[in-house]
Amino acid sequence: MKPLNKNWFVRARLKSRHIPVLVALGETANLNRAALNLGISQPAMSKLLKELEEGLGVQLFERHARGMVPTRYGEAMIRHARRLLTQLDDAFDEVNSLRDGQAGSVRIGTILTPCADLLPELTRQIKQRHPALELSIHTGSSRDLLAALHDGELDFLIARFFAEADQQGLRFDALHQEPLSVCARPGLVDHPLGLAELHGMDWVLPPPGSVLRHEFDALFLNAGMPPPSKVVNVENLLLVTTLLEKNPMLTVLPREVAEHYGRYGMLEVVEVEEGIEACLNRNLMAYGVITQNEELLSPAAKSVLALLRETARLQAA
Q: What order of strands is seen across the sheet that includes strand 249-254?
């Protein structure tokens, strides 16, 4: 197969209307529904897809009983098409903000720990220096946040850079580790718990696949025990705290988050036998600032990113 040159889109006759075709087919896996969503006829949709495939010289979709299934080439083009649409939306939003006298908008993705201290202080600084700026903060797991960053849905992250992540084109500036602690409602436990006692308790934990859950399970696996089975999987922190309040359950939270809720009498750190907390935190990865194509960030995003790094540096001093 002859490789495409840098001006492949010219030879492939790529047009702006091809981009939403890819996104619509990726979302619906159905030619009729995709055409309906775009407000065009099915023959027009088929023609646009044929133009793309002929221009690229590869098959982008296969027709199956379950619908239009993207090939590996199609998956790659859908991913980049989504990113292009997001970037075009961002450009439109930025122009509108500038036209309306606003300072632009910035979207930050973050894991839990920075929400207790770093992000409240960053927000305070932003409101002082850029009062007209629209700030959006999205919380989630490092894995989900990195996927959103790759798709152009976020400007930058405060998250972990785990080994399985696609690190190509990303920059990671480590901040610090977030030691984990076992937590419960106040007064639930009146003595240090051993590993066997912890294993028999009811837990509310992040879902399997998250970094925190991996460290929790490893605590027991490294001791030759299966992870606890009495677990409710929850991502929402409000639900975690509510479940702990109303049930004799334990959870694992970053120490800074536990201390935050402890100040309001909602949670307390549970004492565990010597060595358990150290084992829980032995292989925990540090979190930090993650950026992608930093030079392409909007002026507003660059300003907030610089302010984030300054705020993190001052808090660490």
A: 231-233, 202-205, 249-254, 180-184, 268-269
